[in-house]
Amino acid sequence: MRMLTVGGAMIDTIAIIDSDRIERMTMFNAESSFLLLEEGGKTEAKEVSTHCGGGAVNAAVAMSRLGVDTAALVKLGRDARAETLLARLMEEGVSCRWALRDGRAPTGCSVLISSHDRNAAIFTFRGANTLLESADLHDDAFAVDAVYVSNLTNESAECFPEIVRKARAYGAIIAVNPGLRQLSAYGSAFLGCLENIDILSINRREAGALVPLLGRTAEEKGAVLALAEGGEPPLSAVKGLSGGGFEMSLPGFCRAVTALGPKYVVLTDGARGAFVATREALSFCPAAQCDVVGTAGAGDAFAATFAAFIALGRREEDALRAATWNAASVVGNVDTQTGLLPLEAIERALAGEARLPAVRRWPLCATRQTICQEG
């Protein structure tokens, strides 16, 4: 199995701040919290550390640890940050053949401020990550079994349709994990590519960015869950999705997106768990219990693990549970890669089953009724 990851490469500087040294404000009428930094003052940090990150790099490391022959197509500057990232990739057994250097901008970097519930606030400088262009997309890079595309921004996002075309031309499985900015700025172009995408992985907020583009589709109307098999769905499924003044039920959203092409729609919902939809059913796996040290990288770990397991021919349920377990391991560490598990560790967890959450599954019904009861 050969895989190519495309997208971001970053150097992350992470500051851990004790909760009693920084204030947090939570909005009562919205799902938003804010860390408050004192202007002109110093805040003592518990720890400050530097790590390699970025969507394509995180995914490449995750897949390499799962035993997949992986290469990364990323854009780097001509600086020390680039050297650090290249050394990291080679250390993890990831091919750097398609890692490109560009002197027009420095290598991307981020500063993460983590406190309270460890859901970090992130300041991002994308740098060379924005400079991917058509000339960088060498045909030979896409002669693989699967292509995983992480978040692309600015000029790089304009390459997304061509990346998908090249991957499809070689018959590769295509998995994508776009970010909020890509979906907001290039939503129509993104939807136009869905017919060629096999696996779409997004979080709840990113799904909301697609809702305005899907809100009037016929497929959304009346799509509900058949409750006979899975019992009552979790609150996060009942709540539905909203964005741009439009609202959609979660089953309706999944039906609308899968109707456009993807075989699997993966929707992560943080500590509440994750959903996987096909045209036939919606599956749900609660998040695995763990001590949260840092949430950065959990989404990358989940999406990359699910894609790798599907590409390796594993069952959807195994892929969902393996992704849940790997993401839980990542949040047990401050950075995005230390917790990424080798295949053997995940296989042991799948075989043991005792500590892994059970997957629940509901058939999707095309009906205008509120509930579709089978049997």
From TrEMBL:
Residues 35-223, 259-339 form the Carbohydrate kinase PfkB domain. It comes from the Bacteria. The keyword Kinase applies. One of its GO terms (molecular function) is kinase activity. The keyword Kinase applies. InterPro entries: PfkB_dom (IPR011611), Ribokinase-like (IPR029056). Coiled coil: none annotated. Keywords: Kinase, Transferase. Signal peptide: none annotated. This is Carbohydrate kinase family protein. It comes from Telmatospirillum siberiense. The lineage of its organism: Bacteria, Pseudomonadati, Pseudomonadota, Alphaproteobacteria, Rhodospirillales.
